[in-house]
Design brief:
about 180 residues; mainly alpha; Endonuclease III, domain 1; 2 domains; about 0% strand; globular
Length: about 180
């Protein structure tokens, strides 16, 4: 499977789509979520934050029973909460882009992403979201720098960066301890 070139988000639904893909893929095969993504987009109204934020508990339970989707009521509920968070960001900052452009440092952006969004970690989830969203943070780390800083190696992210930056991305290699036990 070839990793497609990503498209930068243009509207709020695009941002919720990015966040939701990371949320539903967490701990699972990205390929299995990719195979179901059209059904996710349909079930979540094209990831329109205003529509998703209006989902009630009955809707969440019904989606958790939908065989086309990942049956995780907690991740579905998190998607509803994440839609509400995006709407709050728009109210606070005027737009999601303005919010993204408000950060001076990557660490601050990653921390805020991890705080605002459910099931989107401050490490991989934040990096994935900020990278695809095109955050213009002055000290945004390359994938290799991020891997070295966090100790994480995410093959899907490495493929995404390689495809979109037209370069070979080196896998993270943990340093071996020189201490003898």
């Amino acid at each position: 499977m070839t990793t497609p070139r990503m498209r930068r988000p243009k509207k709020p639904a695009d941002y919720l789509n990015i966040i939701s893909r990371a949320v539903f893929s967490a701990g699972l095969s990205w390929a299995s979520i990719d195979a179901k993504w059209d059904a996710f987009e349909e079930a979540f109204c094209g990831f329109d934050p205003a529509r998703v934020a209006a989902f009630d508990e009955a809707t969440i339970r019904n989606l958790a029973e939908d065989p086309r989707l990942l049956r995780s009521e907690r991740k579905i509920a998190a998607t509803v909460e994440n839609a509400k968070a995006l709407l709050a960001i728009e109210r606070e900052h005027g737009s999601i882009r303005s919010w993204l452009d408000s950060f001076s440092h990557y660490a601050d952006a990653a921390k805020d992403v991890g705080k605002r969004f459910k099931y989107l970690s401050k490490t991989f989830g934040a990096y994935y979201f900020l990278y695809i969203a095109g955050a213009k943070v002055r000290d945004f780390p390359s994938f290799e720098e991020w891997s070295a800083q966090t100790g994480e190696e995410h093959p899907r992210m490495r493929e995404l960066v390689a495809a979109n930056e037209d370069r070979e991305v080196q896998p993270f290699r943990r340093r071996r301890s020189s201490r003898k036990v």
